[in-house]
Amino acid sequence: MATLVRATHVLFSGKLLAARGVDPSERAVLALAGFRKSGAPWWIAETLRLLATPEALAEAAEIERALGIFM
Could you tell me the pLDDT band of residue 71, with boundaries at 50, 70 and 90? Predict the structure, then answer.
């Protein structure tokens, strides 16, 4: 549980950086590692969307389809 909480905190700090116009990639990569370790697919998809590379967005869409989430 602690890993999931830490990863969530890091993701939110990355989202704040992005809102300020700062590259959130470093935070997103750290958060992604924590969410993968925790096995949290929805959070993984959220973090991949923050990374926003073509590969990350494709993986996020795949996870969302598997979860029944349609964006």
Answer: low
Residues 12-46: pLDDT tens digits?
999 999 999 999 999 999 999 999 999 999 999 99
- Which helix (H) or strand (E) segment holds residue 55: the answer is helix 54-67
Residue 8 tokens read as: 């969530």
Task: Give the helix/strand (H/E) hosting 34.
Answer: helix 25-38
- The helix (run of H) or strand (run of E) holding residue 20 is none
Residue 44: predicted pLDDT: 98
Q: Which two structure tokens, joined as six digits, stand for 68?
A: 């029944």
Angle at 58 between CA 54 and CA 64, to 5 degrees: 145
The set of residues, in sequence order, having a beta carbon less than 8 Å from that of 70 and lying 6+ positions away, is 64
Residue the block writes with tokens 């993701």: 11
